[in-house]
Every structure is written in structure tokens, then in C-alpha cells.
Amino acid sequence: MTNARFILASSSPRRLTLLADIGVTPDKVVPADLDESPRFQEKPRELAARLSLEKLHAVALREAGAFILAADTVVGVGRRILPKAETSGDVRDCLLLMSGRRHHVYTGIALQTPQGKTLHRVSDSTVVFRRLSSDDIEAYIQSGEGIGKAGGYAIQGRAGALIRSISGSYSGIVGLPLFDVAQMLRGAGWGR
Description:
- There is one protein chain.
- By secondary structure, this protein is an alpha/beta fold.
- The protein contains six helices and seven strands.
- It has a single domain, classed as Alpha-Beta Complex (Maf protein).
- Strands 1, 2, 3, 4, 5, 6 and 7 form a seven-stranded mixed β-sheet that branches.
- Helix 3 (about 90-100) runs antiparallel to helix 4 (about 135-145).
- The chain is elongated and about 55 Å long.
- The N and C termini lie close together (about 5 Å).
């Protein structure tokens, strides 16, 4: 199995960096171009699971005989799915909602082996923001870090100073739960 190619089905530079942290370098990066809109009454965990599998299957149609890894991260407050922030207003709305509250970061990961077997997990991490002042929120918005991020923040940046506690996988909050990925790869025979 060591000769099988490894494909990352994601365009996220953070996921590439995280994989490199555990010594994994994809042979190829093939982003899946999907509509990531939630379905009617879909819960955050369900969305993360569905999108990771859909991304995997979309890339698997083009890349046979390889290990393919896909992931998707969704931030949820209760049953509510927070958007990937596209504007300063989105970042503000997300931070106001999460201020002083707990939220969940779900990262669905899906791995297909060269033989076509699919392995799948969802990492669930809990993040608690301290109560944020309007100055805290405006300063974070001005940093620009929240644009393009699920839930309007990046834990690996300035938002780290706003977070009181986390429970779960730090790397999962960034975008790829490395413990789970390493276990899945090992179990699937990658790198042997």
C-alpha cells in the first residue's frame, strides 16, 4: 500500500499544514466543488458528516486507486449552523452569538482506501468564548482573520485570546482532527 497515491480533497491551506505536522504530504490536492448549503432542518453535526462524504465521493469519481481524504468543518450553536463568514457583518453576527457561550466545532473526516472502502468520523470539540465587549469584536473584525472562516473566527490566530476554554481536538477546530486522521490512516494500511 505504500505505493498508493494520497490525495487531499480540500483546497484549505490549513489542512495541508496540519497534515505536514504529522508527516503526511499529499501527492495531489483535488478540491471538490460542491454546494455546501445546509439542507432543511439539517443539524451542524449532520452537515459536517454529509459534506465530508460528498467531497470524498466527488473526488473519488476522478481519482481511482488512491487514498483520498476529505473533510469539512461546521460551527454550531445549539441546532443553529453558523456561516462561513463572507463579510465583516457575518463575523460580527457570529461573535455576538458566541460571546460568553459555548459552541461546537464539528469536523467530518472521510477516507477512502485504494480498494474503495470508506472510513468516516466526526470530531466534536467544544469552545467557550469569554464575554466579548464591542471593542473586542470590532478589533477582531479589523484584523480580517474571521473572513472565510466557519463561525467567523480562526482559533489559531487572534481569536485564541478570546477563548476561555476548549474541550476536544484543537487541530479539529483548526480544520482537521489529527489524532483521528492518523488513526484512520493507520487502520487503513497507509504508510505500511
